[in-house]
Amino acid sequence: MAILTRLKETLDKAKVPYEIFNHPIAYTSQEIAARQHVSGNEIAKVVMLDVDGALVMAVIMGSHKINLDVARTSLGAHRVRLAAEDEFISHFPGCEIGAMPPFGNLFGINTIVDPELEKDKYIYFNAGNHGQTMRLAYKHFAALVKPRSARLVEVSEKKAA
């Protein structure tokens, strides 16, 4: 079953409103944001991590990058590294490589969300392929996925002038 069908069934069963957008093929979160005419901050980007030997789905704002030292500290882990594609691709049947939606629970994988992403009312994310994006309220996403919240990116502090 394609993941989009599975996602729609999950959201419909939970009576969660969502939207699906078709767009020209896009491979990066910033390309998706441009095609959707939204801020890169509203795109939920999935990064697969190996945290002390366990595969974890990290979800961050599309405009940010994972900081492995920050992630290791906030997760209380000994070792955090980016997972290699061959370590996780078999866990995502029905998904194009690099287009996994941030629903680790549908794949039996723990999901961790950076708190910066929690600030937005809505999130956009890949719908399992590079030509479709879904949008739903963050609160509904959190209620369905039940992600752990942990700092995954380095936040620059604004300094007073």
Structural class: alpha/beta
Along the chain, the helix and strand elements come as: HEHEEHEHEEEHE
- For the biggest β-sheet, the strand order reads 4-2-3-5-8
**Level of helix content?**
10-25%
Distance between the termini: 55 Å
What characteristic shape results from the CA principal axes? Answer: globular
DSSP summary, beta strand count: 8
Radius of gyration: 15 Å
Mean pLDDT: 90
Q: Sheet with the most strands? A: 5 strands, mixed
Strand content: 25-35%
* Uncertain ranges: none
| Tally of helical segments | 5
Provide the fold topology.
Elements: H1 3-13, E1 18-22, H2 29-36, E2 44-51, E3 54-61, H3 68-75, E4 80-82, H4 85-88, E5 110-113, E6 122-126, E7 132-137, H5 138-145, E8 148-149
Parallel strand pairs: 3-5, 5-8
Antiparallel strand pairs: 1-7, 2-3, 2-4, 6-7
What descriptors fit this protein?
161 residues; alpha/beta; five-stranded mixed sheet; three-stranded antiparallel sheet; 8 strands; 24% helix; globular
Word description of this protein:
The chain is an alpha/beta fold. It has helices spanning 3-13, 29-36, 68-75, 85-88, 138-145, and strands at 18-22, 44-51, 54-61, 80-82, 110-113, 122-126, 132-137, 148-149. A five-stranded mixed beta sheet has the order 4-2-3-5-8. The longest helix is centred in the N-terminal third of the chain and has 11 residues, at 3-13. The radius of gyration is 15 Å and the shape is globular. 29% of the residues are buried.
